[in-house]
Design goal:
By secondary structure, this protein is α+β, with helices and mostly antiparallel strands. The protein folds into three domains: 54 residues, no CATH class; 142 residues, Up-down Bundle (Four Helix Bundle (Hemerythrin (Met), subunit A)); 240 residues, no CATH class. Helix content is 43%, strand content 27%. It has a five-stranded antiparallel β-sheet. It has a four-stranded antiparallel β-sheet with strand order 8-9-10-11. A two-stranded antiparallel sheet has the order 1-2. Strand 6 and strand 7 form a beta hairpin. Helix 6 runs antiparallel to helix 7 and helix 8 crosses helix 10. The longest helix has 28 residues. The chain starts with 6 loop residues before the first helix and ends with a helix.
């Protein structure tokens, strides 16, 4: 066989390539060039390989906002997903299932009243520590405190156990927190019993244990409040309608050698919740800005005494905070102890000790069982050394400073927040102050005390507040009364 001549095949390939390029209308050098940036539609390219000749047509750009004619403005980001109808419906069903019945609302208010009684009995115990008759009066006061705590816990347990099956399911989380708070309260109450076995030698232990009990009880009350909100057992302030606003009044109060002004405002609102027929919300606020500004002078005048042969305490500086719901009072002081030596007619005072220190006292407002206001003080921190530190932590000097601070707050508030005087025009069927807390005044940023409570008024009493004549109630309301 004769060898084949391959030359014509080579010319055929060259001819084919040339004809393809002419047919496309592109020069040969176009295959090796890239289109310039921003030149519009990319140019096709040609490649030759073992698998033949290929014409590479560019793919159109892809991606968000891209079309064959070029990029388009990017579309706006999609709106955030909204809860599905099923989710909203489930939340509505849960709220409906948790709602309290009228009987449960009454039981809940009684429950809150029992917790206020515990606070009152607890304060009676702490007040005994500064009295000479503490040992004699302690057993009876302790029994009253134990009984009030026991009653509050029994009412709380009975209230939770009285839930319907739907309420148990809807309130599982909040009732679990309330039960845990109750358990912690029991533990701290037992620790309180251990610390008071001997008031003479364990006074400091009782102060520490009482502070821990107070924290546990505050958490217990907070979980009760959350439960009431979940069950709509208290009016929602966001749904209240203004009913009556009493004119603001300013009282002048003298504390020590300082006269301060306390501005008080009050308001009554009516809730739109159907469960609260005749129940209105009472709010009272007392601004304590003057007390903040004058607290140094007030404490200086209360602590000042001239005893050249004894202890001398000078208040150098004091400040009242604006925290909520409790506040702190910081006091910086100078302490000296002198002793007089020599014969009686000509005793010469000699300085025995001199030191500087500071203390921080926590001030907490509380509501007693009769609706009156109490001020609780607790020594939070001491910055001092040696004998002065001991005198401030567990000695008479620290007690004296706490007592003067308490007296200053009580004197400033006792006449300004007079519930009987405020409610005299309406003579309500019942009046209950639920909570007391320190707040930051929205106008001047100073400290203020806010009281929240409830009144039960008849239609005639509401009409008196509005300055209107009494209207005859509808027939169905008359039949219910």
């Amino acid at each position: 066989m004769k060898p084949q001549n391959r030359a014509p095949a080579t010319r055929s390939v060259i001819f084919t390539v040339g004809m393809a390029l002419l047919a496309l209308g592109f020069p040969l050098k176009a295959a090796a060039q890239k289109p310039p940036a921003g030149a519009g539609i990319p140019i096709p390219t040609i490649s030759i390989g073992t698998d033949g000749i290929k014409i590479n047509l560019p793919r159109p750009p892809t991606g968000p906002g891209i079309s064959p004619g070029g990029p388009r403005p990017t579309a706006a980001a999609p709106a955030p997903p909204r809860p599905s109808d099923d989710t909203e419906l489930e939340a509505f069903r849960r709220a409906l299932a948790a709602q309290a019945t009228p009987a449960q609302v009454s039981d809940y208010l009684s429950l809150l009243k029992s917790t206020r009684t515990v606070i009152s009995r607890f304060e009676d115990l702490r007040a005994l520590l500064d009295q000479q008759s503490a040992s004699a009066e302690w057993p009876a006061k302790k029994v009253e405190f134990d009984e009030s705590l026991k009653k509050a816990r029994i009412l709380n347990k009975a209230f939770v156990e009285g839930f319907s099956e739907s309420q148990k399911g809807a309130l599982t989380v909040v009732t679990s927190k309330l039960i845990r708070a109750d358990s912690r309260l029991v533990d701290q109450a037992k620790a309180l019993d251990v610390s008071v076995s001997d008031l003479t030698t364990k006074k400091g232990d009782f102060v520490s244990a009482s502070h821990r009990f107070e924290k546990a009880f505050t958490d217990f009350r907070e979980q009760q409040r959350v439960l009431g909100e979940q069950m709509y057992a208290l009016p929602d302030p966001g749904e209240e309608q203004p009913l009556f606003t009493m004119p603001a009044s300013t009282n002048s109060v003298t504390i020590g050698n300082q006269t301060i002004a306390v501005r008080t405002s009050s308001a009554i609102s009516r809730t739109s919740t159907a469960n609260f027929d005749g129940l209105v919300h009472l709010q009272m606020t007392a601004n304590l800005g003057d007390l903040q500004q004058s607290v140094t002078s007030i404490l200086q005048s209360q602590m000042a005494h001239s005893d050249p042969c004894g202890e001398q305490v000078t208040i150098q500086q004091a400040m009242v905070g604006t925290s909520s719901p409790t506040t702190d009072v910081w006091v910086q002081l100078h302490f000296e102890r002198w002793a007089c030596l020599g014969p009686s007619p000509s005793k010469t005072p000699v300085e025995v000790i001199e030191a500087n220190g500071s203390i921080t006292v926590k001030v907490t407002p509380a509501v007693d069982k009769d609706g009156s206001l109490s001020i609780l003080t607790h020594l939070e921190a001491v910055e001092a050394t040696g004998m002065l530190a001991d005198m401030l932590r567990s000695g008479p000097l620290g007690d004296a400073v706490c007592a003067k601070i308490k007296r200053s707050f009580v004197t400033a508030l006792q006449d300004s927040l007079n519930l009987s005087a405020v409610l005299q025009p309406m003579r309500p069927d019942s009046a209950t102050i639920e909570t007391a807390k320190f707040v930051r005044d929205s106008n001047g940023g100073t400290l203020a005390l806010a009281l929240d409570g409830h009144l039960r008024l008849s239609r005639e009493q509401v009409a008196v507040l509005n300055g209107q004549k009494s209207e005859s109630p509808p027939a169905h309301e008359t039949s219910q009364r």
